[in-house]
């Protein structure tokens, strides 16, 4: 009647796939405890780590849990404890981890009445109150694992992509907050056709590269000509981090979700660690506090 879950951090966009691609990290995430109760309804009983609202209708985990609950109308209720490790506004899917964790846990306790796409749909209701727009590119990898592509949100259609076995992610999280709403506000409404062509060629070839474990093609495809030029101004030392991680052997380096975190994809754990050092070197001189992580994609 109780379940403890790990709700992973995720990287959305993956350079060229704005709002559609994402992947799941296995070394960073929140913990949640979900308990079945005889009293009906959804209650948040504990939040540790960050100051977030306890009211179900204001809490991302509460809203997504309530969406599932209203659909199923079970004869019981649920209590949710959130042990938050992912800082809100970090660009590694903090709200998505809360939104997907609660529905994933409740579904397990109920004997899995819903499939992963349906869980993502409920989680989107929670994510919407945090980012004020409906996107599932952080939710889908958290629920499905590995790399995912959100083919469409209406109707919701998620594709699970293969992960080449030697692929690692290195991340730096500068301790500044960039709100998704703000980093969406800097984006243009229209895109030159030439850039659109480059971008969709990169998305297509990146997916082909995942299917064929073609690391060189991953390197050539991890390029974002549409979003990064506008958003990188919000992230101190972005260009330096990118140049230094590429020099240290990263296949590619780009903004994680809406920032400020920056991720690099690397072939092999050793390269991933070298890339982590390169990130350290840039930020240790900056006076901005930061954390770095190396993670498998799972
Ligand atoms: N795809 C979204 C964005 C993810 O980049 O705005 C942020 O949560």
From TrEMBL:
It comes from Winogradskyella vincentii. Keywords: Amino-acid biosynthesis, ATP-binding, Cytoplasm, Kinase, Nucleotide-binding, Threonine biosynthesis, Transferase. It is an enzyme of class 2 (transferase). Pfam families: GHMP_kinases_C, GHMP_kinases_N. GO terms for molecular function: homoserine kinase activity. Residues 208-284 form the GHMP kinase C-terminal domain. It is found in: Cytoplasm. Residues 65-146 form the GHMP kinase N-terminal domain. Belongs to the GHMP kinase family. Homoserine kinase subfamily. Pathway: Amino-acid biosynthesis; L-threonine biosynthesis; L-threonine from L-aspartate: step 4/5. This is Homoserine kinase. Its EC number is 2.7.1.39. Catalyzes the ATP-dependent phosphorylation of L-homoserine to L-homoserine phosphate. It catalyses: L-homoserine + ATP = O-phospho-L-homoserine + ADP + H(+).
């Amino acid at each position: 009647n109780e379940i403890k879950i790990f709700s992973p951090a995720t990287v959305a966009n993956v350079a060229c796939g704005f709002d559609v691609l994402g992947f799941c990290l296995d070394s960073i995430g929140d913990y949640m405890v979900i308990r079945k109760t005889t009293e009906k309804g959804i209650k948040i009983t504990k939040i540790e780590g960050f100051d977030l609202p306890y009211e179900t209708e204001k809490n991302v985990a509460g809203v997504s849990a309530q969406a599932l609950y209203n659909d199923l109308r079970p004869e019981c209720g649920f209590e949710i404890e959130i042990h938050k490790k992912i800082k809100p506004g970090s660009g590694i899917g903090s709200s998505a981890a809360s939104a997907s964790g609660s529905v994933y846990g409740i579904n397990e306790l109920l004997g899995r009445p819903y499939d992963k796409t349906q869980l993502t749909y409920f989680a989107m209701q929670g994510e919407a109150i945090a980012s004020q727009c409906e996107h599932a590119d952080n939710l889908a990898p958290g629920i499905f694992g590995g790399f995912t592509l959100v083919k469409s949100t209406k109707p919701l259609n998620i594709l699970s992509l293969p992960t080449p076995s030697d692929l690692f992610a290195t991340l730096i999280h500068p301790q500044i907050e960039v709100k998704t709403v703000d980093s969406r506000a800097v984006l243009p409404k229209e895109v030159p056709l030439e850039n659109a062509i480059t971008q969709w060629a990169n998305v297509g070839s990146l997916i082909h590269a995942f299917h064929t474990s073609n690391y060189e093609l991953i390197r050539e495809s991890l390029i974002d000509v549409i979003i990064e030029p506008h958003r990188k101004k919000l992230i101190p030392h972005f260009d330096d981090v990118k140049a230094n991680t590429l020099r240290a052997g990263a296949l590619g380096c780009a903004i994680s979700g809406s920032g400020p975190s920056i991720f690099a994809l690397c072939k092999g754990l050793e390269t991933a660690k070298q890339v982590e050092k390169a990130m350290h070197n840039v930020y240790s001189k900056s006076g901005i506090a930061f954390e770095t992580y190396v993670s498998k994609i799972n």
